[in-house]
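Intended use. Records like the one below are meant for learning the mapping from a protein sequence to its folded structure. Do not use them to infer anything beyond what is encoded.
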Amino acid sequence: MISVFAAIFSLAASGEVATAPRLVGDWTCTAKGTSESFVWRVSDDGPDGFLVGEVQDGDRRMALELWAYDEDGLLGTRRQFADGGTSLAMVVTERDGAILRSQGAAALADGNTVSLRHTLTWLGDGELTALWEVADGDGFRTHADEICRRGS
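Structure written out for the chain above:
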């Protein structure tokens, strides 16, 4: 089964202005090399509110995610909470066309903290990838590599 750690990290974005509208809707995400998937439902309150993501495995909510808009109306910070006690705090560090990269930390249920990087890449209007990396002594290593397609 896909790890909750990987499942709660599945968001993607493209160019700065089109990021939030392109994310709204239902997505089916699958870890590359497996057939296991989860649904990611995204809604948007607009620049005066939040972009909200909900990760579900069947009828079970696995995670809830909030993105806050910055002073320029762009997605800036994000917080995620998983059913197993893991939480994340991340900040967007790079915007470049079809790529949105964020970096931050995950507080794990066992009390440990890990540094993370998430690179989101649009492959088209209905498809994107989500690459999750965890810091170790030599830099970052891949934790999860997912493909998400619009529709559930």
